[in-house]
Every structure is written in C-alpha cells, then in structure tokens.
User: What shape does this take?
Amino acid sequence: MIDPVEALKKHTSDSIPMPSVVPGNTPIYQEASATGNRALWAVFVIMLLSSLAFYAMAFRVPVQKRLFHILTAFITTFATLSYYSMAIGDGVGQNKILIKHTQKHFPDTYDTVYREVYWARYVDWSLTTPLLLLDLCFLAGVNGASILVAIVADVIMILTGLFAAFTIDEAPKWGWYAMACIAYLVVIYQLAINGRQTAKAKDNKTATFFAAIGGFTLVLWTVYPIIWGIADGSRNIGVDAEIIAYAVLDILAKPVFGFWLLVTHDNFSSSASIDGFWAHGLGKEGTLRVGDDDEGA
Assistant: This one.
C-alpha cells in the first residue's frame, strides 16, 4: 500500500529541484590589465608631445594672435597630467555595484562587482571640454551669454557622468546619465544652432571651417556617452576596452583637433588678433602705485 504522505514528499521533491549548492556573494573584480596600462602610457606620451608642439607653435606668432594656441595647449597639458595620474594608478578608484538576482522558488542571490573608475578622466574633461568649447565659440564669434550657457551645461554633463560612475544602485545611475544627456543637448544647441548662425555672419572661409571642425567635434562627443553606457553603465565591455576606446576618442578630440584648428586658422588672413591687456598688460592708468604721495599731500 502507498503512503500518501511519502508520495506527496516524493512529488514535491521531483517538481521543485533544490540546488545542492546555493550561489554565494562572490566578488567580481573588473580591472585594467597590462594592456590597458600600456595604452594609458601611450596616450600620455602623445598628449605630452602635442603640448610641446602647441607651445612651440604659439611662440612662432605674435602674442596678439596666440589665443587659440594657448587654449589648445592648455587642453593637451591637462590631458597629459590626467593620463599620467591614471597610468601610475593614482587617478583611479573602485565602484561597488550590488546586483540582485530574483528567483521564483529560491532565495534571492547577489553579485558584488568592483569596477575600476578612472576619476582623473572626469577631472580632465571638466577642464578640457570648456576650453574646447572656447576654441569653437571664439572661432565662430559666439556671444558671451551663449558661451556661458554652453560651458555651464558642459560642466554639468561631466559632473553628472562622474556621479553616475560612482553610483551603487542601477536606477539612480541611469538617472544621472539622463541628466548628462540633457545637458549635452544644450551644448549641441549652442554649437550647432547659435554657433553655426554666428559663423555664417563672418566670412565664408570661417563658416566652412567651423562647420567642419564643429561637426567633427560633435560626432566625437556623441560617441563618449555611448562608450560610457556600455562600459561604466552596463559593464558590457571590460576596463581595457573602455581605456582604449576613450584613448582613441581623446586623441582625436584633443591633439588632432588642435593641430587641425591651429594649422588652418593660422593660414587665415583675418585670424583673430587681441591687443589691450592680453598683449600689453595693464596700462599706466590701471597700475597700482605703492609709496607715491598724492598731489598736494
């Protein structure tokens, strides 16, 4: 005779198999290897040599015409410092990400991911991208109000990207990412709409050049958030692939951009010339005199 209780136990154990080992919370470390580190050193050298070249180019023109040279040289100088800090391991931190796996018949399990985040890269971008915007805005002749809006939106974009990279929970991370994308749309508007309209009011050569180099920059900048989404965001690519992808973009957006801008702009007959304080410092009327008595004292 079959015992119904034993039959029920047997049926239950057959229908819902229990794992012999319950998955634990084993940490997962996503870090750069020697390949990624070599890429960082390579870009450091490229940025350093580009900076030296830009400073040399600046000394070949009068100080009145060095505005673009100085801005562009500062861009690669900051990038040089950033890549050096990342290459020696100082400009990097770790973000702890807790991933929850919900099971229907078993207890929830968790994975803890520790991914390297190169915070020095965000410091670099927060300094260099406003300088890049100044290069483009001065080239087009954009007004001061639009320049200020573009730079503030750009800084917001970089900072929200940094906050997202160090956010533990998934939902808030993509909230920061959405804010960064909105800020980037403001930057696009200021360059693609205001900048293009202003450049058209200048000579045809400047308008054509601005359309080319501005479009080149916007295409590159649009790729950055895509890389972020599949790297720090969803972690679909490793840290080495992330480093190499950003390295290629940074080389195109900084040294290549800089050489293109300076070589082409220097060939313009109507290149920008700035006198006054930029070229000559404070005049006699603006100097401070120490120890001179007023007349009649």
